[in-house]
C-alpha cells in the first residue's frame, strides 16, 4: 500500500510548534553568527594589543620631539565612523600624518612614517639646513631686520635670530614677500647660482651686504649704500667679468667703490655709473 502525501493534508499543532521552534533556533543561530562576524573586527580594532601607544622621532636636530609627537597624537585621536580607532596599527592615517607634519613644520623637507611593531610608530624626519637669510627690512643694509632662514633651494622655512646677519648672505625683494615664511624666494634654478656669484665678487673687493630681487632686475647693495644693477636673466659669469674689468680701470683707486651711487650693468657690455657727489 502506498501513502501519497498531500500538501493540503491536515497538520497537527505539535507539528507546527516543532517547525516554529526549528525556525527560531536557526534564525537565532544565524543572528548570533552575523553579530559575531560584525563585532569581531570592531573588537579587534579596539583591542589595546593592536593600538599604537609609542611614537619614536629621529632625525630632528632643531625641532623638539614633543612638537612632532603632539601633531601625530592629534592625528591618532578619534575614530573612523565613530567605531574604528585611528590609532589601530592596521588603520593609522599614515599619509595624513606625513602631510600634517610637513604643513605644520616648514623646517622639515621630508618625513617617513612606518611601524616598528604594533605598538610603536617610527617617524624619520629630514630638517632643512640654513643656507642664507631672507630679510624683509633692509632700510639699513648693514643691519637688516625681520629675517628668516633660506635653505639651498630658496625656500624660507624659519625665523632667524637677529645675530645671524654677519654669517650668511642676505637676500631681499621688492616688493617684500608677505608672508615670507613658507615662501620661495626664487626658483631653485635661479637661486642656486647666486651664492657662488656673490662669493666670486669678493675676489676683486666687492662685498654686497644685500642681494635684492626687484622685478626683472637684481640689485647688489653695498655697505656704502651703492647699488650694482643687473638684469635677472643676465649671464652671471659675464656680469662678474665686466664688473671686474670696470673696477680695475686705472682711473679708479681703492677708495672709489665707496664713492659710487650706482653701477649699472643692465645694458650688456655698456656700463653706466654715477658718483654720490654727482647726484
Structural summary, described in words:
- This protein is α/β, with parallel strands linked by helices and 279 residues long.
- The protein has two domains: 80 residues, Roll (Ubiquitin-like (UB roll)); 147 residues, Cell division protein FtsQ/DivIB (Rossmann fold, 3-Layer(aba) Sandwich), CATH 3.40.50.
- It contains six helices and 14 strands.
- The strands form three sheets. Strands 8-7-6-9-10-11-12-13-14 form a nine-stranded mixed sheet, covered by helices on one side. A three-stranded mixed sheet has the order 1-5-4, with helices on one face.
- Strand 6 and strand 7 form a beta hairpin.
- Helix 2 packs across helix 3 and helix 5 runs parallel beside helix 6.
- The protein is rod-shaped and about 130 Å long.
- The mean pLDDT is 89.
Q: Do you know the CATH topology of the largest domain?
A: Rossmann fold
Tally the structural domains. Answer: 2
What is the beta-strand fraction?
25-35%
CATH class of the largest domain reads Alpha Beta
Annotated CATH architecture of the largest domain? 3-Layer(aba) Sandwich
Question: In one word, what is the shape?
Answer: rod-shaped
What is the mean predicted local confidence, pLDDT?
89
Order of helices and strands: HEHEEHEEEEEEHHEEEHEE
Number of helices: 6
Q: Tell me the structural class.
A: alpha/beta
Largest sheet: 9 strands, mixed
Output the CATH homologous superfamily of the largest domain.
Answer: Cell division protein FtsQ/DivIB
Cα(first) to Cα(last) distance is: 135 Å
Q: What's the total count of β strands? A: 14
Strand order of the largest sheet: 8-7-6-9-10-11-12-13-14
Uncertain residue ranges: none
